Amino acid sequence: MIEPIGRDRVQLKSVVRNTSLMPLSFAWEWVYRIRRSFYEYGIFHKTVFKVPVISVGNLSFGGTGKTPTIIWLAEWLISQGLTPVVLTRGYKGQLEDSSGLLKSGQKFRLNPFDYGDEPLMISNKMSKGAVIVGKERAKNLLKYFWEVQPDVVLLDDGFQHLQIYRSFNIVLFDATMALDLYKVAPLGYLREGFSALKDADAIVISRTDLVTQEKLQKLQAMIAENIHHKPLFAYTRYHSVGVFDVHDKYIFSMHELKGLKVIAVTAIASPDSFYHYLEGAGVVLGEKVSFSDHYFFTPEDVNDLLIKASQQSAVIMCSEKDMVKMKRVSLDSRILFIKVKVEFISGEKELRSTLSKVLHLDSHS
Questions:
Q1: Pairing of strands 232-245, 202-206
Q2: How many CB atoms lie within 10 A of CB 80?
Q3: Residues 38, 149: contact at Cβ < 8 Å?
Q4: How far is the C-alpha of 51 from the C-alpha of 54, rounded, in Å?
Q5: Which distant-in-sequence residues (6+ apart) come within 8 Å of 56 by Cβ?
Q6: CA distance 300 to 342
Q7: What is the pLDDT of residues 112-158, one digit of tens each?
Q8: Cys-Cys with 153: which of 16, 53, 204, 242 at CB 3.0–4.6 Å?
Q9: 96-118 per-residue burial string, b: 16 or more CB within 10 A, e: under 16
Q10: What are φ and ψ of residue 297, in 5° steps?
Q11: How far apart are CA 49 and CA 328, in angstroms?
Q12: What is the pLDDT of residue 96?
């Protein structure tokens, strides 16, 4: 027998690995299919609330831009005179296994160790409404419903959270994710298969400015060939508001970053997208320091980073989500963050119009 060498050997190992994992992937996908059908046919109970519920979720593990999209939705709903409430798990927060309530304007004495980083970030953006934390979302919404009295509920990371009936499903895709990862775990990076998209009312593809048109078209084709209805499609990117310090004070624009020496620090699901964003702004990346998603920085971590910053005559740059936790440890002026918001390349008008009908608003709002 001729022993394969070089790239052929790597490809053979990949085929063997994929073949061995295929039964697990097949079983995983069918467990989720059966679970979804049980809720669809009423075998499993769904809690129905008297207000519209909009779910924002995805098929894949990791970040696809759910939090910025939730913030965009909440701000738009508030601009329409509605009071939104966000239901979120509060991943890795101390209240994840119980419950917690964050009311808008409640900015002091709040700890990300209790609520999680993303709930605090969302709450800080809301001028009205509340964020409810805890993984038993239906139970927690019932607990706080009369206290917060929402006009609409936003279900964060809700596409697989089928215990709550929703009026509208938004499913997010990250344009930068490699196409060969679109297989159900453990073969790929999907929680459940494309068949689940039958429940999608809108598909939003994020970070579309970071990929080629060819890559985007291939992703679109992959999605289209796996759905039999016509959900609304929208395309987004992140737009920088500017660079801010630990006190949320505006320091300078992204254009002024060019040539600045930076130590990039992340504890997010897609660190490469953050690094690419900085490189696109023309910074000099002295070092990339990645922690696991939702990691809580320690004083030792930040002290080591500040020493590196001094040695390299650099500043420390992190995401807005990371700054929620970073500022609990240090208020050093060398720690900065980039504030971004969702910007639609296309589909925003259509999405607002459709949501207005679901919420019985003026379709031209």
A1: parallel
A2: 16
A3: no
A4: 10
A5: 66, 69, 70, 73, 154, 155, 156, 157, 158, 170, 172
A6: 33
A7: 888 888 899 999 899 999 999 999 999 999 999 999 999 999 999 99
A8: 53
A9: beebbbbebeeeeebebebbbbb
A10: -65, 140
A11: 36
A12: 86
Here the tokens at position 21 are: 């994992």
What is the SS3 assignment for 316?
Answer: strand
Written as six digits, the tokens of 313 are 């005559």
Burial degree of 15 (CB within 10 A; 0-12, 13-18, 19+): exposed
Give the pairing of strands 250-252 and 232-245. antiparallel
The answer to whether residues 265 and 289 touch, using CB atoms and an 8 Å cutoff, is yes
Q: Which of 251, 274, 273, 250 lies closest to 264, judged by CA?
A: 274
User: Which CATH architecture describes the domain 53-238+343-358?
Assistant: 3-Layer(aba) Sandwich (3.40)
Amino acid at 61: F
Peptide bond into 4 cis (omega under 30): no
Each residue of 37-73: pLDDT tens digit?
Answer: 999 999 999 999 999 999 999 999 877 889 999 999 9
| pTM (two decimals) | 0.88
Q: Residue 279 has what DSSP assignment?
A: H
Q: Find all residues with CB under 8 Å of 345, minimum gap 6, and list them.
A: 208, 209, 235, 236, 237
Is residue 213 within 8 Å of residue 205, measured between CB atoms? no
Q: Give me the amino acid identity at 227.
A: I
- Separation between Cα atoms, residue 127 and residue 109, nearest integer Å: 18
Task: Quote the CA–CA distance of 121 and 324 in Å, as a whole number.
Answer: 7
CA dihedral 113, 269, 106, 341 (to 10 degrees): 160
User: Is 131 in contact with 123 (CB distance < 8 Å)?
Assistant: yes
Q: Rounded distance, CA 152 to CA 176, Å?
A: 31
Assigned token pair, 110: 């709040």
Residue located via tokens 């909440």: 74
For residues 101 and 132, the answer to whether their CB atoms sit within 8 Å is: yes
Give tens-digit pLDDT for 63-105.
Answer: 788 999 999 999 999 999 999 999 999 887 888 889 999 998 7
- Asked if 129 contacts 59 with a C-beta cutoff of 8 angstroms, the reply is no
Token digits for 302? Answer: 């930040």
